[in-house]
Structure formats: C-alpha cells, structure tokens
Amino acid sequence: MDCPRPDMITLADIKLAFDVHKPDLLAGGDASHAAVALILREERSGLDMLFIERARHDNDPWSGNVGFPGGKVEKSDGDARNTAERETLEEIGIDLRGTRFLGRLSDIAGAHMPIWISCFVYGVGAIGPPRLSEEVGDAFWVPLDELFDPSRHGEFSVRFDGRTLIRPGIRLPQPGKPILWGITYRLVMQFRDILPAIDAGHSNGHYLP
Which of 107, 139, 176, 209: CA 20 to 30 A from 63? Predict the structure, then answer.
C-alpha cells in the first residue's frame, strides 16, 4: 500500500477516517491487558506523533524501547480508555481529558509476551513540554512525513529480553534513538493503513496517491 501524504492530512481528516473505522476488539483470555495513547499535534508543516523512550530498568523487557505512554489496565480505571489517559498523565504529565478524542485502533496481541494492547488516538493543541516520570527517559515528537518515509522502514537488529532479533521497524529521525519496532510499530502501521479510509471526495481533496 502506498504511504499517505501526511504533510497534507489534518486532525479533522483523521477524525473522518476513524468515524468509518470499526476496530476489532480482543477478549484477551489469560493475557494481561494494557492500554496506550497515540497522541497527535497539528503543526504548520503537518502532523507530529508523540513517542516515549522508556527508562532503562533491569527487570523491564521493554527497557529503553520506544513506545506510547500507557500501562496495565486496572479494575479501578473502569475501562481501557481511562487507563490510557491515567497512564499518560502519570508518565508524561499530559492530561488528555478535554483534548480531542479521534478514535480507537484495533486491539493487538503481543508477539513475545502474553499481553494484549488497546490503543486510543488523541489530537492535542499547543501544550507545554512533557513532565517525565521515573519510568520514562524521554518524550519526543516525530513528524508523520518522517515516520512514514519508506527510506526509514526496513528490517533491523533489535534487543528484547536479552535476545537479539531481526524485526521490521522504523529508523527515527532523532539521532541516537532506538529503532521503533514491535507492538508500537504494529500500531503505527495500523494507524497509517486507516488513513486511506478518508473519503477522497471530501472538499479538501488532498489525501492519498
């Protein structure tokens, strides 16, 4: 599938795409349930997506990996969307309540761990710098045109739980950042593939090749 033209897509366009998207939801079984937030901001040059780089901890199999803010769904949260919002506030100090909720991606199951992930998509306006918890080493924005640039996509050597793996991923534009791969990569690609659902007859007329 051809990449969208992300430099010409707006938050309003993405909301239209999610209005017709029907996400597949998993029951999960005995697997742990986690929820994350995919956060977008609209700049003059196009849309940016927010990522975190996890702090390095010996007991964390995702130590140092790039991902979205989020964590385990707790009964006290009520539902997975509340989890994504609570964890985002705790991890990077961004309160998603009152921001623009755009939609939900299909749930995915972890390939290496017994876990299933729900991902909720938000659009934000001007916000201050993230306030990082001890679980997060960094938070940074990546322009969608860089993220979807085919020259950044490929097969890469990555480390997970003490093992070296060859997996599809994205080489991020920020120097020194880890390869974007795994669950987050799969969510990013699912998000990209939803974008062509935008009606090409919409009055803006500027969507996909």
Answer: 107
Record the tokens describing residue 9, joined without a space. Answer: 């897509």
Q: What is the pLDDT of residues 63-103, one digit of tens each?
A: 789 999 999 999 999 999 999 999 999 999 999 998 999 99
21 is written with which tokens?
Answer: 């998207």
Element of type H or E holding 43: strand 32-43
The answer to whether the beta carbons of residues 50 and 18 sit under 8 Å apart is no
List CB contacts of 21: < 8 A, sequence separation 6 or more: 103, 194, 197
Domains, the chain, with CATH or none: 6-194 (3.90.79.10)
Distance CA 57, CA 55 (A): 6
3 state SS of 7: helix
What pTM, to 2 d.p., does this model score? 0.89
